[in-house]
Amino acid sequence: MDEASERTGGREITAGLVVIGDEVLSGRTKDQNIGHIAERLTVEGIDLREVRVVADVEADIVAAVNALRARFTYVFTTGGIGPTHDDITADAVARAFGVGIDVDPRARAMLLDYIAETELNEARLRMARIPHGASLVVNAVSKAPGFRIGNVIVMAGVPRIMQAMLEAVLPELEKGRPMLSRSVTAHAKEGDIAGPLAAIARRFPDAVIGSYPFRDEAGRFGTNLVVRARDEAVLEAAHAAVAAMVAQMSPAA
Amino acid sequence: MDEASERTGGREITAGLVVIGDEVLSGRTKDQNIGHIAERLTVEGIDLREVRVVADVEADIVAAVNALRARFTYVFTTGGIGPTHDDITADAVARAFGVGIDVDPRARAMLLDYIAETELNEARLRMARIPHGASLVVNAVSKAPGFRIGNVIVMAGVPRIMQAMLEAVLPELEKGRPMLSRSVTAHAKEGDIAGPLAAIARRFPDAVIGSYPFRDEAGRFGTNLVVRARDEAVLEAAHAAVAAMVAQMSPAA
User: Fold this and answer.
1) What is the tens place of the pLDDT at every residue in B140-155?
2) Is A47 strand, coil or helix?
3) Is A212 in the B-facing interface, judged by CB distances under 8 Å?
4) Which residue of A has its CA nearest to B15?
5) Rounded distance, CA A3 to CA B199, Å?
6) pLDDT, position B96
């Protein structure tokens, strides 16, 4: 048992993500947070298992947070913690946990670190409303903090701020054994590889083998094969089997 | 009542989207389909209300499809309909509907329109497996079809193919009254606008007003305000109120 799995008792550390915002569902804003969070969590050994994108509607946010926090080690949320009327994430998360919410003196102090007291109007003070019992997540970019309550971590939607919050909170989280991966590029069509690949997948039940077809600039078909496993020996054996299969199918010209 | 709302009895036409694929959850592939589908549906008057990204796990796909098809007019899925062992969407959707699944002669004929019979191996034939009772969705790019069963529309994950399938199926779908939108750029911080903006939002309950802060190249703060409404008169009145508020806050120098 390696250090990470010993630390976590060998169990997998999982996560769900709730992306909050009408602007993503209307197509006005192209989400950049899912990809970033997926990549960072994978590196850290936290398996992102499900993402939900929901509207700025309290009942929808509550339902998504409650569904995912019951299933996964952690739930991250992005969006809806700014100063405007449509920023309702903090209230929705308080509702999901059945706790109250008020202006938090620690969060207020963080805001005053960035703006003058005269600028701290009622709208900006909304950004200091934190559910009872939550700890704060530092925002190195623009101070208004995120927060963590139970296993739910609430972050901003602006990518640069979200990324800073994610880096601030990651050191506090349990990590699993990271998923390792190796890939092989086959200059062959996916449909010609699929049969032998399925046989390899059956031989290595502890590896996950993904197949991603592409066409190169010259219009030739190819397939990227990605082998993933937590155990390095399993990874190497499955990768070798895939590489040998590919070499057999596309011999050097 | 305009033509579209007459056609639909005035009811809103809604949609959910299930993005299927380990590669999105691991961060290996950055999803490009959510943004495209969101934008196209919005233009067509179909409200995308929720997106779920799930892994290549049958139980997860079944749960997501069944949860969303009960709530929305339509459910779209992307991904998992290729020839490899990890392409399990068609089977999962058949399971969700409790129907059988077999190689469909119509789908098989479509494949043979693109590849020679000698190339139609067992793996490629998987792409012709269609749940009983489904109609096919034409794939103008690489022939292997998507399908529609009940209110669920199953599409490929490769963006170019997904887009062709979406265009093929959209003419068959009911459309609602499209959401109209107008935006105003304020050269002011979101926190200074939030108070008056909330008052305008209260005055126009049939409009949705979103607020999106940005910093320009020179590092100056600004806020894009987007007013959305189905009724043109409501849109114009709410937009005028927002524009007047912005003009008052940032008078011409």
Assistant:
1) 998 999 999 999 999 9
2) strand
3) yes
4) A25
5) 55
6) 98
User: Does the beta-carbon distance from A191 to B124 stay under 8 Å?
Assistant: yes
- Alpha helices (H) in chain A, listed in sequence order: 3-7, 22-25, 33-44, 58-71, 89-97, 105-112, 122-125, 159-169, 190-203, 232-249
B91: its two tokens: 């089977």
pLDDT band at B9 (very low <50, low <70, confident <90, very high): low
Per-residue model confidence (pLDDT) at position B217? 86
Does A62 lie at the interface with B, CB-CB under 8 angstroms? Answer: no
Residue B40 sits at the chain A interface (C-beta within 8 Å): yes
**How far is residue A202's CA from residue B105's CA, in Å, rounded to a whole number?**
29
B39 φ/ψ angles, rounded to the nearest 5 degrees: -65, -45
* Residue A122 C-alpha, separation from nearest chain B C-alpha, in angstroms: 7
The residue count for chain A: 253
Paired tokens of A36: 């970033």
Tokens of B80: 């998992």
With a CB cutoff of 8 Å and minimum separation 6, the contacts of B205 are none
Q: Closest approach of chain B CAs to the CA of A37, in angstroms?
A: 8
Query: Whose CA is closest to A77, among A69, A85, A170?
Result: A69
ipTM, interface predicted TM-score of the complex: 0.91
Residue A181 bridge partners (DSSP): A228
What domains are there in chain A, each with its CATH number?
3-172 (3.40.980.10), 180-249 (3.30.70.600)
Q: Which letter does DSSP use for residue B207 in this model?
A: S
Q: Which residues of chain A have pLDDT under 50?
A: 1-8, 252-253
- The pLDDT value recorded for residue A4 is 46
* DSSP category for residue A253: -
Contact: B50, A25; criterion CB under 8 Å: yes
